[in-house]
Amino acid sequence: MILVTGGAGYIGSHLVKALLEKGENVIVFDSLELGHQETINVLKDYGNLKFIKGNLKNLDEIRGVFLVNKINSVVHFAGYSQVAESVVNPQKYYYNNVYGTLNLLNAMLEFGVKKIVFSSTAATYGEPQYSPIDENHPQNPINPYGNTKLMIEKIMDDYDKAYGLKSVRLRYFNASGASSDSRIGEWHEPETHLIPNILKAEKERTFKMFGNDYDTKDGTCIRDYINVEDLAEAHIKALEYLNLGGETNYFNLGTNTGNSVKEVFTICERIKGENIPIEICPRRAGDPAVLIADNTKANKILHWIPEKDLEYSIKTAYEYEKFNLH
Ligand code: UDP
Question: 184 near 323, Cβ under 8 Å?
């Protein structure tokens, strides 16, 4: 069985769907603080899914999962991921993300489970020193969220050296899109991400563009938008890599290309078929001008090649918004 923490969340739920479609037995462990019961209900349609509501901050709850289930490997998504919130409330981030992960890893060691795939982030690199960013780029996070993810990466290195726990850390760039059948997608409350915020915009809730005076081709920030189903596939390849005896490793997950906020906005308007109300606002604190992944390492070692483009991601995100009004 594969244990997926945070499997009721955005990226986790897409992995769970892909695993179930492959016939895997999956256990989702999620507190439902940010994930959604509705997502779990939908996922049950795809295969053999067991759901356990629990919090990683409680060691007994996660130990209990290992005690009564035969778990072979773990994919660890559970965690808080809002940069701005992490700056004003670092305590919440260190306690949940780092302490929660320590409990998970300790339960794994106790029950002899030695393979984990972990959701890391491009935010561990901090301000880019060159672009595109490869895995040799220095890791200097500039906010508590990025710090928690980097700390966990380091803990995983030490646990490998001391206890032989093998990890694959996947450093996501900008996850985007929804499932191809529009049944699961991006659902954050409050929503802070670009594509859903553009698609949700209306007269009373204009889209706020954070800065148009960056040193880029059109003045807006450039990001590497990677489709969420492509991301899910990378986790499956990472599990295969570990199952074949692969060593601890880390990979960037992105597309090697970037799109500006204005470009994303233009595609959204075209797909929606209407003018979207927009407001130019000051820059958002901590946003680098350009973030693009070099994904060569994941291509070579995991044999992972992203297949879906930004247009497709926005189309699926739009379908998901239309059919899932929340
Ligand atoms: N952005 C924006 N308006 C929004 C949300 C995001 O202009 O309502 C911009 C943001 O400043 C950044 C880009 O869109 O340049 C991507 O932001 P997002 O929060 O989606 O992802 P991040 O790159 O922060 O992980």
Answer: no
Below-50 pLDDT ranges, the chain: none
Sign of CA dihedral 185, 187, 188, 190: positive
The rounded distance, in Å, linking the Cα atoms of 118 and 3 is 12
> Would you mind telling me the total number of residues written for the chain in this entry?
326
Q: For ligand 1, is residue 188 a contact (CB within 6 Å)?
A: no
* pLDDT at residue number 326: 65
pLDDT at 283: 95
Q: What is the residue type of 143?
A: N
Predicted pLDDT at 157: 98
CA distances from 240 to 32, 153, 243, 258 (A): 28, 20, 5, 29
End-to-end Cα spacing for the chain: 32
Would you say domain 2-176+227-254 falls under CATH 3.40.50.1370?
no
Mutation pick for ligand 1 pocket among 195, 206, 259, 261 (CB with most ligand atoms within 8 Å): 261
* The pLDDT of residue 161: 98
pTM: predicted TM-score of the whole model, two decimal places: 0.97
Beta bridge partners of 172: 121, 253
